[in-house]
């Protein structure tokens, strides 16, 4: 038995009897991630003195074509802004985005001096409704961003054809998905390689995580676009050592304190205190929450955090297989279609009248489900008036954000027994739907 296995046994089987089952709070982090983060925390000043560089070819291998241009940044939102700015579109050019998303997407559009055009979604896959998008195209529309909500792949053949028909630039927001094969006109390709470029996120609740981080991928081989993107990247400042410390501390706390002792009160208290003391960074700044055209906290990626990311990527096949297995259990137990999507979270639409009851019962069983998305754009206090949004503009989004969609955890901490228990709690409410 390895030292990791021994320590894991001591921590999780003897000391802690009530483990945390949740979509959030370091869902990917395991014991070895915590140990690596501890070492990096000690070595961080040394890394800065010697100006350790990121070896990008070692971080992502054999995923995108050799012609793809990749740069690592501090977040998916930074990557999206860089990609949009590299297009050098006329000011006020329009970008089609969907509701049922995160506020950083329209923020990135605004920060690129472009206009976000909000479109509704399909109730079946929570992704962009092309019928609604077609109604909103004007002579200023230049870009379409597709989201892959929860890791669900929409009908990308139709999306690609739609973009060709209206001469739109396709950008793939891959914040919920990573390295997944897809058939386009009978040919196998990778998600993220279908359009002009794509965006990856390594945030705290994503497929792989280094607490913060992201990547921008340019698929267009044009030297002009590559030069523009490179210039935008070079203008980014280096990441602050404070954000690196906060990111490492978050991982350490999740592994050794917050997750193991969450249901004993100590974990909750630690999370509250360390947030208040700013030892843990927030997901959004106050300005970002309210919708802003001002760039906030954009920077290059951290060489230190890239080590944590590489450890996550070594386990990507294990993560994906586990998510597939847990998702199939949910589907089978809840009598839902079994798909080949690699769900980051498994979405279940429930009656709005039962939503609060289901969450309460799950919480009593030490299970915290996610709530992507309980607003047209999360967080719920986003100022949607700045996006020219009026009630009734997005009827499907409005219907679903009104306490309808539960996100069931699929991460490595969820066992088959957990998944069956979660499904058994939810199923009676679905039957009465």
- Oligomerization state: single chain
User: How many DSSP-defined strands?
Assistant: 15
Main sheet: strand order: 2-11-10-7-6-3-5
- Name the structural class: alpha/beta
- The rounded distance between the terminal residues' Cα atoms is 48 Å
Count up the helices.
16
Given as residue ranges, the uncertain stretches (5+ residues, pLDDT < 50) are 6-16
Fold-level CATH name of the domain at 56-234: Aspartate Aminotransferase, domain 2
CATH class of the domain at 56-234: Alpha Beta
Report mean pLDDT, rounded to a whole number.
Answer: 91
Q: Helix coverage percent of residues? A: 40-55%
CATH superfamily of the domain at 56-234: Type I PLP-dependent aspartate aminotransferase-like (Major domain)
Strand content: 5-15%
CATH architecture of the domain at 56-234: 3-Layer(aba) Sandwich
Question: What is the makeup of the main sheet?
Answer: 7 strands, mixed
Shape descriptor reads globular
Radius of gyration, CA atoms, in whole angstroms: 21 Å
Keywords:
single chain, 433 residues, alpha/beta, Aspartate Aminotransferase, domain 2, seven-stranded mixed β-sheet, two-stranded parallel sheet, globular
What does this structure look like?
The strands form 5 sheets. This protein has a 7-stranded mixed beta sheet, with helices on both faces. The chain is globular, with a radius of gyration of 21 Å. Helix 4 (76-85) packs parallel to helix 5, helix 13 packs parallel to helix 16 and helix 14 packs antiparallel against helix 16 (416-431). Residues 6-16 have low confidence and may be disordered. The protein has helices spanning 3-15, 31-49, 56-59, 76-85, 104-110, 130-135, 156-165, 223-234, 241-261, 266-276, 286-290, 303-314, 316-333, 352-364, 395-401, 416-431; strands at 21-22, 69-73, 94-98, 101-102, 115-119, 141-146, 169-174, 181-184, 187-190, 197-201, 214-218, 345-349, 367-368, 377-378, 405-409. Helix content is 42%, strand content 15%. The chain has a domain at 56-234: Aspartate Aminotransferase, domain 2. A hairpin with a 2-residue loop joins strand 8 and strand 9. The chain is an alpha/beta fold and 433 residues long.
